[in-house]
Write a structure and sequence with these properties.
CATH topology of the largest domain: Molybdenum Cofactor Biosythetic Enzyme, Chain A
CATH superfamily of the largest domain: MoaB/Mog-like domain
CATH class of the largest domain: Alpha Beta
Keywords: Magnesium, Metal-binding, Molybdenum, Molybdenum cofactor biosynthesis, Transferase
Radius of gyration: 31 Å
Helix content: 10-25%
Number of strands: 28
Largest sheet: 6 strands, mixed
Number of domains: 4
Strand content: 25-35%
Protein name: Molybdopterin molybdenumtransferase
Number of helices: 9
EC number: 2.10.1.1
Distance between the termini: 45 Å
Shape: elongated
Family: Belongs to the MoeA family.
Pathway: Cofactor biosynthesis; molybdopterin biosynthesis
């Protein structure tokens, strides 16, 4: 039996075990179906606004620009002079610079020197760029007729007073902060931080190598997941490691429900006799649902709730936990904040070797980007054997490539969806 036949047999075994594998998009829709946004807002200053979510439409009571101003360095002339014959010589009678008033009015037959950003005097109808005039002492020669309003930025042409500058549910970034600063806002109302709890489950786990027994494993999921949620949008609480004991896990979840909006747990959802997340949630009076998704790694994903607290159950293997965090937990976090997060952004890349398809599961594989082909498309190389517990291929990879389910092979040179880590590992 070759490698491809072995993969098909494994996937067919999944089917014969009675597991109904859901397509990824359908599983995501089911997972997010009843996730309810949190309530509560806070007022913050502008220098704390990055990556926060606006709690309501933000409006402005001023216009931008605040006044008519010059779009470039040049010379201003009056409206009636635009109807005169050109070329024409004008006498310079004044000057206007940014932050200063004009030194004199613009009289008929005269021009004033005007610099970028300067308030345009009311009698100036057009500004001629300095590159288009000939300067001789205190006179200028204008060769061609300018159009009325040329190179003048009018008051309110960008933003009118009373306009909405940021709609409710906007995730604020540097562009938005520039707008808020421009209209003079120093305090804004945003959605309060989402309170998130982290729990890892497993008798074998320890926080560091010094605490390991001879059969132990260091828990990498909590540090990894915490690093994926570094943002002022989130307030992370670490509830540590819980052994494979439904009573202890039930108590930990009930404790968490008193202080957080959402818990992300890892481990305890594959269905073996030691997996206890379902029993712990039900014992706590909550609800539980496990989905089997047609992806690899990361087939199982669990969701639940205890009261208003949402629970996201990830697999225990690190790569499975990472993929399911990106595909399920990450959108759930933003649903709790009241906004819809776009799906992970992919690009097209070309594989450099034949890659087997799985019969009924799409596969995310760690890949490294090499050179580009003649069309400028990145060429990607598979790393590792595909084990969901192997970290070295993940560390060396530049992202994941998605091999869609099917029969046969993806032949070398065919395009694949490529998900760069530089996009995937950002919460925004």
């Amino acid at each position: 039996m070759n490698v491809h036949q072995s993969l098909i047999q494994q996937d067919m075994n999944d089917c014969t075990k009675g597991q109904s594998l859901l397509p990824l998009q359908q599983a995501q829709e089911i997972f997010l179906n009843d996730v309810q946004p949190i309530a509560g807002t806070v007022s913050i200053c502008l220098n704390q606004a990055m990556s926060r979510i606006t709690a309501a439409d933000i409006t402005t009571d001023i216009s931008l620009p605040r006044f008519d101003n010059s779009a470039m360095d040049g010379f201003g002339i009056r409206l009636e002079d635009l109807s005169m014959a050109f070329p024409r010589t004008f006498q310079l009678t004044g000057r206007a610079a940014a932050g200063h008033s004009a030194t004199s009015n613009c009289t008929p037959g005269s021009a004033i020197r005007i610099l970028t950003g300067a308030r345009v005097p009311p009698d100036v109808a057009a500004i001629i760029p300095q590159e288009q005039v000939t300067l001789a002492g205190d006179t200028i020669l204008i060769s061609s007729v300018p159009r009325p309003g040329a190179n003048i930025r009018r008051q309110g042409e960008d933003i009118l007073a009373g306009s909405i500058i940021l709609p409710e549910g906007t995730m604020i970034d540097a562009r938005h902060i520039a707008m808020l600063a421009a209209v003079g806002l120093t305090q804004i109302q945003v959605v309060r931080p989402l309170r998130i709890g982290l729990i890892s489950t497993g008798d074998e786990l320890a926080d560091n190598g010094w605490d390991l027994n001879q059969n132990g494993i260091v828990d990498v999921n909590r540090p990894m997941l915490r690093s994926l949620m570094v943002s002022p949008m989130f307030d992370i609480m670490d509830f540590g490691i819980c052994p494979d004991d439904p009573e202890l896990l039930s108590q930990a979840l009930k404790d968490a429900a008193r202080s957080v909006d959402l818990v992300i747990s890892s481990g305890g959802i594959s269905g073996s006799e030691t997996d206890c997340l379902q029993r712990a949630i039900l014992k706590s009076g909550g609800e539980y649902q496990r989905l089997s998704v047609a992806i690899r790694p990361g087939k199982p994903i669990a969701k639940g709730c205890i009261g208003a607290m949402t629970i996201v159950g990830l697999p225990g293997n690190p790569i499975s936990a990472l993929i399911n965090f990106l595909l399920f937990a990450r959108p759930a976090l933003f649903a709790k904040l009241g906004i819809e997060l776009p799906h992970l952004i992919s690009t097209k890349a070309r594989c450099t070797e034949d890659l087997p398809r799985r019969f009924n599961r799409s596969e995310f594989i760690p890949v490294q980007v090499g050179k580009t082909n003649e069309e400028g498309e990145p060429l990607i190389y598979k790393l590792g054997s595909g084990s969901s517990s192997s970290l070295s291929p993940l560390v060396a990879a530049d992202g994941f490539a998605l091999v869609q389910s099917g029969t046969g092979f993806v032949e070398a040179g065919e395009p694949l969806d490529f998900y760069p880590f530089k996009n995937a590992f950002s919460v925004s």
